[in-house]
Specification:
The chain has 264 residues and is an alpha+beta fold. It has five helices and 19 strands. Helix content is 16%, strand content 41%. Strand 1 and strand 2 form a beta hairpin. The protein is globular and about 55 Å long.
Length: 264
């Protein structure tokens, strides 16, 4: 199925959203919870899977949705279709501070591999599946990356990343070592594996985990500076209600100051 051709504009700096312009009968698919706003004349519908195989019968739809469930995502996605005569716009927001990037899958040989929580939305016709890495080391120790999402098709897809997004072009044979959580995604030509950090002191006292990802070119890699899991860990660690140690935000009054200003 050829993907619908959509136009878009990305707004904002740190808390971005993408506005997609739909011609009559054009459709965009999105993750549940990413919707921000839309014009009147756009029909919203919940479907199994990604909508790329909606003509394949009930079994095909359930199988397609089941692949998303394996990655930890929901069984359902939402489609937004312009059922009016003129152009209409619908917007989707990034769930946490970071960047949104548009991927033209036609320029990536029709395939892109990304973290399971990186996908935001795409033109209808883009298939959102799963990507298994055949290497046992990646499967056991990859953390974020054993089961990743696979975006396939010939249309536009949008992914988001935490913090600052960095694009790295790897030459043939060039290797990049990355924290597993900092990988946003990469083209299908990149070879992905997990490598042991090495050394007793590094393993026990390094604080960076026992393994990191090795990405070997050629291909394009997107890396994020602030994975959501890292952000969540820091928040939980310093939340008094979760048993963490509050930093007091520089206040000389500490807990008393939070009582006075209404934070508690």
């Amino acid at each position: 199925m050829n993907a619908h051709e959509i136009d878009y504009t990305i707004y904002g700096e740190e808390m971005q959203f993408v506005e997609i312009e739909l011609d009559p009968q054009e459709t965009v698919i999105a993750e549940s919870g990413s919707f921000m706003m839309m014009d009147d004349g756009i029909k919203m519908e919940t479907i199994f899977g990604d909508g790329s195989q909606q003509q394949g019968g009930l079994f095909g739809k359930v199988l397609n949705a089941g692949k998303r469930w394996i990655t930890g995502e929901g069984l359902f996605m939402t489609t937004f279709t312009n059922i009016n005569y003129g152009k209409k716009k619908v917007s989707f927001a990034s769930p946490y501070p970071g960047k949104i990037v548009a991927l033209d899958l036609r320029q990536m040989n029709g395939r892109f591999i990304c973290q399971k929580d990186a996908f935001l939305c795409a033109a209808k016709g883009v298939a959102v599946g799963i990507e298994f890495n055949r290497k046992i080391g990646t499967g056991l120790f990859g953390g974020e990356g054993f089961i990743m999402q696979k975006l396939e098709g010939d249309g536009l897809a949008f992914i988001h990343a935490g913090g600052t997004l960095h694009k790295k072009e790897l030459q043939p044979g060039e290797v990049l070592k990355v924290d597993t959580g900092c990988i946003v995604g990469f083209t299908s030509t990149v070879n992905y594996d997990i490598q042991f950090v090495g050394g007793i002191k590094n393993s026990i006292f390094g604080g960076e985990g026992l393994f990191f990802a090795t990405l070997q070119g050629p291909g394009t890699v997107y890396v994020q500076s602030l994975p959501f899991s890292r952000l969540a860990d820091r928040i939980i660690a310093h939340a008094p209600s979760a048993g963490g140690k509050s930093q007091g935000e520089g206040s000389l009054l500490g807990g008393l100051g939070r009582l006075l200003d209404g934070d508690n």
